[in-house]
């Protein structure tokens, strides 16, 4: 399949390396001169199969009696069971093995039909699957009485292949009977190279996925990129401009390397265009990624539709909608900090209504509108804290605290305890999403929002909509009462399960990975 490839030898020889087990260097490997892997093996009773020396383990004997493909499956049959290394006609146990191999995406399924034609059944029966470094395998069996043990074999000399160590093995223990029918499967975990490893979004996404995928850093697209991509399955792109910049020629060169390695592209499209560069070159780079991506994740159906109307994606590109997770886990400090403590620490005077505009300034973020609306408000108990930039004309109003530059993360989270509401003053066009919406949900703080279809979908009515103009926002502020703020805050808290990284985002992301292959 597009996600899995291997060869299955059908030859005879003097050691386990010649046995009919799937081979794929770097994924399915056979230890040299040691216990056979990925096929049923008999060991004398009272001893574990893994401890048997070569020549004592008993496996399907000799060359297959028949082999062939039919309806998307490959079937191989052996008559008789013999000690590993036995002659091509020797048989130690009468019986047969009929194995049917099927590939479903990245999963190899093997249906076993085992027969033993003897009154005295053979010793322990098992199937052992070895892992290569950095390529965990998920092993399952549908027999109700099978038991699967996972064993740490790192550092053991007998668990090495021709290519390197085999640090972990899975052993399926199969109850012995004259007739045995069951299916076992192996699914390699997807190795994903993230272009933003270490970023808060990356940590929040891949933390709950640590037992499902292997996440590594994509590094930078330098001369070693082809080698690094050759060791992963998926390139997970977030903000293209952070990784390849906004030079179309450089982007095209990197995409050539990605294509040559066969690496799949998963793009979480946070932006319509880069925040800091909205020129033609930046849009051209986004277009190149759109054409190449195998799967594009959009945070809302609204954002998907806007993106589809803006870029020409490849005919093979799949589009999925996965919500942005909320930032509740990052707000634990807030829950342990009182409003008074924050006011004292920040040297803010007590306020009956404190509003905050958080996050970096954006072209689509109407900061001037907010400060003008506060200045126009008749409320004397009002306090606005806003992260601004030099393009905003901040009036001389003691009710407005304008800050410039980054606020340290722990302090940022604590300060939310002193806000009655966040103001999200975005233009109705130009962006696909804003992470500040998920600050409001995660912190359980009321939100005053502009007219934007993104807010309709994400907040589902939990926000307080003010409109689009200075007068709209000033009027909204003047009539805000505690009950309205409390209802919005409760609505934000009620949304948290929908945007939970573990319960909601993780299963949706794993489903999206299925579309990659």
Give the helix/strand layout.
Blueprint: E1 41-42, E2 58-60, E3 66-70, E4 73-83, E5 93-104, E6 107-116, E7 125-131, E8 137-141, E9 147-152, E10 168-174, E11 179-188, E12 191-194, H1 200-206, E13 214-217, H2 225-229, E14 234-237, H3 240-244, H4 248-261, E15 264-268, H5 280-292, E16 295-298, H6 301-310, E17 318-321, H7 332-335, H8 339-346, E18 353-357, H9 367-376, E19 382-388, E20 400-404, H10 409-415, E21 421-424, H11 436-443, E22 446-450, H12 453-459, E23 464-467, H13 470-478, H14 482-495, H15 501-516
Helix pairs in contact: 4-5, 9-13, 11-14
Written description of the protein model:
- The protein is of the alpha/beta class and 517 residues long.
- It has helices at 200-206, 225-229, 240-244, 248-261, 280-292, 301-310, 332-335, 339-346, 367-376, 409-415, 436-443, 453-459, 470-478, 482-495, 501-516; strands at residues 41-42, 58-60, 66-70, 73-83, 93-104, 107-116, 125-131, 137-141, 147-152, 168-174, 179-188, 191-194, 214-217, 234-237, 264-268, 295-298, 318-321, 353-357, 382-388, 400-404, 421-424, 446-450, 464-467.
- Strands 2, 3, 4, 5, 6, 8 and 11 form a 7-stranded antiparallel β-sheet that branches.
- Helix 4 packs parallel to helix 5, helix 9 (367-376) packs across helix 13 (470-478) and helix 11 crosses helix 14 (482-495).
């Amino acid at each position: 399949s597009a996600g899995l490839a291997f060869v299955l030898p059908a030859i005879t020889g003097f050691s386990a390396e010649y046995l009919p087990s799937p081979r794929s260097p770097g994924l399915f490997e056979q230890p040299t001169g040691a216990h056979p892997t990925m096929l049923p093996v008999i060991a004398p009773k009272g001893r574990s199969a893994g401890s048997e020396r070569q020549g004592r383990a008993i496996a399907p004997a000799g060359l297959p009696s028949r082999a062939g493909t039919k309806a998307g499956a490959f079937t191989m049959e052996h008559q008789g069971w013999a000690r590993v290394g036995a002659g091509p006609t020797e048989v130690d146990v009468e019986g047969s093995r009929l194995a049917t191999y099927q590939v479903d995406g990245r999963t190899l399924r093997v249906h076993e039909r085992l027969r033993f034609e003897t009154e005295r059944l053979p010793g322990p029966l098992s199937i052992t699957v070895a892992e290569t470094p950095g390529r965990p395998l998920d092993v399952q069996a549908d027999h109700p009485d099978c038991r699967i043990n996972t064993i740490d074999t790192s550092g053991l000399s007998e668990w090495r292949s021709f290519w390197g160590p085999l640090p972990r093995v899975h052993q399926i223990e199969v109850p012995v009977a004259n007739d045995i029918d069951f299916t076992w499967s192996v699914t390699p975990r997807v190795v994903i190279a993230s272009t933003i490893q270490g970023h808060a979004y990356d940590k929040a996404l891949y933390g709950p996925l640590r037992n499902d995928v292997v996440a590594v850093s994509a590094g930078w697209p330098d001369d070693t990129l082809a080698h690094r991509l050759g060791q992963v399955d998926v390139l997970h792109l977030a903000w293209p401009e952070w990784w390849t910049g906004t030079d179309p020629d450089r982007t095209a060169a990197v995409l050539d390397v990605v294509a040559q390695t066969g690496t799949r592209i998963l793009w979480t499209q946070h932006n319509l265009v880069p925040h800091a560069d909205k020129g033609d070159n930046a849009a051209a780079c986004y277009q190149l990624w759109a054409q190449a991506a195998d799967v594009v994740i959009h945070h809302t159906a609204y954002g998907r539709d806007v993106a589809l109307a803006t870029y020409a994606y490849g005919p093979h590109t799949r589009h999925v909608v996965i919500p942005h997770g909320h930032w509740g886990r990052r707000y634990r400090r807030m829950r342990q900090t009182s409003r008074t403590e924050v006011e004292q620490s920040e040297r803010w005077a007590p306020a009956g209504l404190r509003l905050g505009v958080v996050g970096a300034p954006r072209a689509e973020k109407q900061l001037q509108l907010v400060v003008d609306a506060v200045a126009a408000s008749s409320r004397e108990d009002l306090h606005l804290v806003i992260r601004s930039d030099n393009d905003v004309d901040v009036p001389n109003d003691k009710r407005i605290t304008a800050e410039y530059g980054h606020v340290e993360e722990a302090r940022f989270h604590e300060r939310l305890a002193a806000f009655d509401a966040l103001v999200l003053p975005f233009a109705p066009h130009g962006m696909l999403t804003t992470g500040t919406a998920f600050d409001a949900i995660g912190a359980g703080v009321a939100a005053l929002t502009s007219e934007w279809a993104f807010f309709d979908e994400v907040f589902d009515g939990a926000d307080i909509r003010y409109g689009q103009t200075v007068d709209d926002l000033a009027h909204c502020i003047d009539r805000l009462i505690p009950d309205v703020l409390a209802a919005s805050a409760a609505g934000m808290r009620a949304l948290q399960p929908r945007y939970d990284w573990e319960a909601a985002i993780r299963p949706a992301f794993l489903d999206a990975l299925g579309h990659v292959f």
